């Protein structure tokens, strides 16, 4: 029986995975089996942390808004401000409110005074 040489497909697949893990340290970028394991692990972590990043930023924005509101003593809590924003149908998301709170506190005072009226 004649000898059959393997094609280039498996090698191409391994080099594609190796390019993905080329910046990893040690055996995680050299050995084929650990390369595939680390690629799976990296993709799982990336997928998980995309959702976590959204949660973390939302918590950061809420903390910033709450700190400025309590400092100005216009409102007593963040929740009361957000509730009144929705009642007045002022659709400002938390990211924009946090930027206003940091960069221009007077504008946040004007918004909160407008809600009180």
UniProtKB/TrEMBL annotation:
Keyword annotations of the record: Plastid, Ribonucleoprotein, Ribosomal protein, RNA-binding, rRNA-binding
Superkingdom classification of source: Eukaryota
CDD domains with a match to the protein in the record: Ribosomal_L20
Predominant subcellular localization, coarse grouping: plastid
rRNA processing found in the keyword field: no
Listed InterPro entries: Ribosomal_bL20 (IPR005813), RIBOSOMAL_L20_CS (IPR049946), Ribosomal_protein_bL20_C (IPR035566)
GO cellular component: plastid; ribonucleoprotein complex; ribosome
SUPFAM superfamilies in alphabetical order: Ribosomal protein L20
Gene Ontology BP term (one): translation
MF terms in GO: rRNA binding; structural constituent of ribosome
Subcellular location: Plastid
PANTHER family the record matches: 39S RIBOSOMAL PROTEIN L20
Job of this protein: Binds directly to 23S ribosomal RNA and is necessary for the in vitro assembly process of the 50S ribosomal subunit. It is not involved in the protein synthesizing functions of that subunit.
Family: Belongs to the bacterial ribosomal protein bL20 family.
Protein name per UniProt: 50S ribosomal protein L20
């Amino acid at each position: 029986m004649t000898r059959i040489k393997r094609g280039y497909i498996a090698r191409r697949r391994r080099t594609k995975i190796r390019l993905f893990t080329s910046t990893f340290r040690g055996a995680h970028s050299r050995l084929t089996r650990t390369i595939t394991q680390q690629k799976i692990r990296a993709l799982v972590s990336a997928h998980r942390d995309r959702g976590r990043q959204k949660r973390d930023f939302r918590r950061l924005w809420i903390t910033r808004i709450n700190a400025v509101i309590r400092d100005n003593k216009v409102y007593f809590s963040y929740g009361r401000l957000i509730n009144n924003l929705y009642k007045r149908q002022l659709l400002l998301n938390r990211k924009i409110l946090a930027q206003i709170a940091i960069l221009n506190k007077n504008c946040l005072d004007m918004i909160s005074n407008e809600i009180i009226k």
